[in-house]
Write a structure and sequence with these properties.
single chain; about 110 residues; alpha+beta; 3 domains; 2 strands; about 40% helix; about 10% strand; extended; CoA-Trfase_fam_III; CoA-transferase activity; transferase
């Protein structure tokens, strides 16, 4: 019932109107963006957060960079977004599984 009541009001408002109303009563909030909206955001543009990263199957992808800047240790994106299952073996090994156990799970179709 609560969700229905909230949706009845929010359907009639823009995202900006909802954020303004919540800000006015000190409710922490912010919009949930689509990817294109992220890069259109004035703060993202001002901080120059768009980084173009080479990806092995998608060509070049846009990612948000780090919102902080350190003079002696600049933050750098070193890897592309992972492919599905790209780190499965690494994660399972970190959890204590042996290579043989991982191979058996793969053969059984568990991973």
């Amino acid at each position: 019932e609560l969700v229905e009541r909230i949706e009845a009001v929010t359907r009639t408002l823009t995202t900006a109107e909802i954020v303004a109303r919540l800000d006015a009563v000190q409710v922490p909030c912010g919009p949930i963006y689509t990817v294109p909206e992220v890069f259109a955001d004035p703060q993202v543009q001002h901080l120059e957060l768009r980084q173009r990263i080479p990806h092995p199957t998608l060509g070049t992808v846009d990612q948000t960079g780090f919102p902080w800047r350190f003079s002696r240790t600049p933050a750098v994106i070193r890897r592309h977004p992972p492919l599905l299952g790209e780190h499965t073996d690494e994660v399972l090994q970190d959890l204590g599984y042996t290579s043989d156990q991982i191979a058996a799970m793969r053969q059984e179709g568990a991973i």
